[in-house]
Amino acid sequence: MLSTQSASVVRATLPAVGASLGAITELFYRRMFEERPDLLRGLFNRANQANGAQSEALAGAVAAFATALVDHPDERPDAMLGRIANKHASLGVTSDQYRLVGRHLLGAVEELLGDAVTPAVAAAWDEVYWLMANALIAMEARLYAEAGVENGFVWHDMEIDERTEESPDTASFVLRRRDGLPTEPFLPGQYVSVQVELPDGARQIRQYSLSAAPGHKTWRITVKRERSTDDLVPEGEVSSWLHAHARPGRTLKVSLPFGDLVLPDGDGPLLLASAGIGITPMLSMLDHLATVSPDRPVTVIHADRSPAQHAHRLELAELVHRLRDASLHLWYEDRAAEWYESFGDAPGEPGTPTAHVREGRADVSGLLLPKDTTAFLCGPLPFMQAVRSDLLAHGLGPAAIHYEVFGPDLWLSK
Ligand SMILES: Cc1cc2nc3c(=O)[nH]c(=O)nc-3n(C[C@H](O)[C@H](O)[C@H](O)COP(=O)(O)OP(=O)(O)OC[C@H]3O[C@@H](n4cnc5c(N)ncnc54)[C@H](O)[C@@H]3O)c2cc1C
Ligand code: HEM
Predict the structure, then answer these.
(1) From the CA of 126, which ligand is nearest?
(2) pLDDT per residue over 256-308, tens digit each?
(3) How many CB atoms sit inside 10 A of residue 287's CB?
(4) 140 is known as an active-site residue
(5) pLDDT tens across 63-98, in order?
């Protein structure tokens, strides 16, 4: 909780600081990377720096935290902090790095707001920073302890055991530990970070959801290749590298699993809604459910460009088929009828997994969902926003709708 003197200063300066937060976080990163260029090449995602997404995510998180401190001093925005802490833990962020970030963040506030930053204002925002930093440091310490590692030691060598092309743009990689031990446990829905060394010597890290259930001796990730769409949008650095170079026998540096989008225990009804590569955490959840609770009611929704582009489409249908009380609803923008051809059978033939296949944009408004459904969403932001609106209109409470963004979470703080 903020001290009384800082609370009034933060309340008074929040509009001015809030209005400049975009510029503050941009300057913060610029100044920090001037001092420590190794962090941009070896820890931070340089695409998110180039397109401004990480600056926006940081500005949004700081604004949301400061607003919560003055508006609801007795509540801490733990959902937001937990999401950040899991991302940090998957990158091996260490507690001592918070001093460097704090120095540059507060330095950027002073540099941009000039004389308005009196000693009292600087002290109040320093307090906000350290309340947030210490909450994150404590959460990260707990995550590291639960994973059984020291502060930030999350990386280990994994060997690629198998590679499978799942669609023209996606490949899955089965990973096993180089020391022969079983892979660490994780919760369905969690992800790992993968680091690769690029041709210019930079080390870049990206997250990939585990796309099969825990409990196997191996992990599996599925990577969509981010292609260049025009001269202004380059191809994705890590996904293209993995598609070009990651073959069986090669070793990758992979983090332990982290992530806060996890399946709740119990037997309540579930909705799993994904689009495109957002299918990966859902596959892990379904694989897990099919093994441990095949009677749980589950509605599965997936949207994709066409059946041919839909990675893991047969596996998805088979997993849903293994659940006794589940339904599968598929929406394709194009060529929906080709889904049936995947099975070499006509719709409704014995042995053919049944699905409701439609052409067009996903529309969940017509589905019959129990009011106590817990929903999990993963896909592009517009898809998730549309599904969430439909679910709220359906009577689901906001707390029952969980989601994962495959990038800096720009939704959380909006
Ligand atoms: C929790 C989580 C789970 C994830 N799970 C998966 C998963 O299971 N499977 C999966 O495939 N992905 C997953 N992702 C996404 C993944 O981490 C990467 O973001 C993705 O592979 C793209 O990385 P990249 O290095 O190939 O692209 P990047 O190089 O990071 O580029 C990303 C995008 O930014 C654009 N870009 C780059 N530079 C610029 C610039 N200067 N100006 C404008 N645009 C630019 C690129 O064209 C590209 O479209 C997940 C992400 C998160 C956070
Ligand atoms: C109070 C301090 C901090 C705050 C508020 C903060 C906030 C955030 C936020 C909001 C994200 C995006 C999370 C997401 O949506 O996935 C993020 C990611 C990240 N943070 Fe922090 N952070 C802090 C400290 C640090 C420190 C000390 C480091 C280490 C130097 C660090 C390194 C990173 C990295 C590498 C990412 C991922 C960047 C990317 O993928 O583009 N952060 N942080």
Answers:
(1) 2
(2) 999 999 998 899 999 999 999 999 999 999 999 999 999 999 999 999 999 99
(3) 22
(4) yes
(5) 899 999 999 888 888 999 999 999 999 999 999 999
Ligand nearest to the CA of 105: 2
Looking from the CA of 14 toward its CB, the CA atoms found within 13 Å total 18
Burial of 295 (0-12, 13-18, 19+ CB in 10 A): exposed
Q: Which CATH number belongs to the domain containing residue 328 in this structure?
A: 3.40.50.80
CA of 9 to the centre of ligand 1 (A): 39
Q: Are residues 129 and 207 in the same domain?
A: no
| Same domain membership, residue 230 and residue 191 | yes
Task: Judge if 69 and 95 occupy the same domain.
Answer: yes
Q: Among this protein's residues, is 338 annotated catalytic?
A: no
Q: Atom 26 in ligand 2: which residue has the minimum CA distance?
A: 98
CATH code, domain with 55: 1.10.490.10
> Which residue is catalytic, options 127, 140, 166, 404?
140
Structure tokens at 43: 């820890």
Quote the number of domains for the chain: 3
Q: In 323-403, where does DSSP find H-type helix? A: 338-341, 381-393
